[in-house]
# Entry
Amino acid sequence: MSKFIVPKEDARVRLDRFLARELPEHSRSRIQQLIRIGFVRLNGATTRPRQLLRTGDKIEVTEPPPEKIETRPEPIPLDVLFEDNDLIVINKPAGLVVHPGAGHREHTLVNALLSHCPMLSGIGGKERPGIVHRLDKDTSGCLVVAKNDATHRELSRQFAERIVEKIYLAL
# Structure
């Protein structure tokens, strides 16, 4: 559980924006979802994502248990650049969708990853296990994937704080 007391400088900031800054391992849409389903309490009560904060407000965030992965593994070849017990770095080709979504339930990088290493971090949910960042379908490049929840949290923090430098080359 994470607990926060809202400082003076964050008065009138939206709850979801405050938490997105304080919990960089979660996207703002994931934080909004956690607020809506009751895993976030403001002064002991459930609330809504756009609630404006006041100095001294008390926020409690309870982490739901990691979701069970339901995406099917598929033996799609991967170009593995690096792998250890905590993470795997993939050279993602252009044209490959990273995670299942509308219109792309199969033949994604996540399907291939689950075939290669079945135990990925559950923080990303059922459709994005281990995915710390993304690349668009038509973009090629390095993709870092977490194998466990602790690594996922730390890598997410590093990406959010811009400790990891991304370099893009256009051809």
Remarks:
- The mean pLDDT is 89.
- The helical segments are 15-22, 28-36, 109-116, 149-160.
- The beta strands are 2-5, 40-42, 58-61, 80-83, 87-92, 141-146.
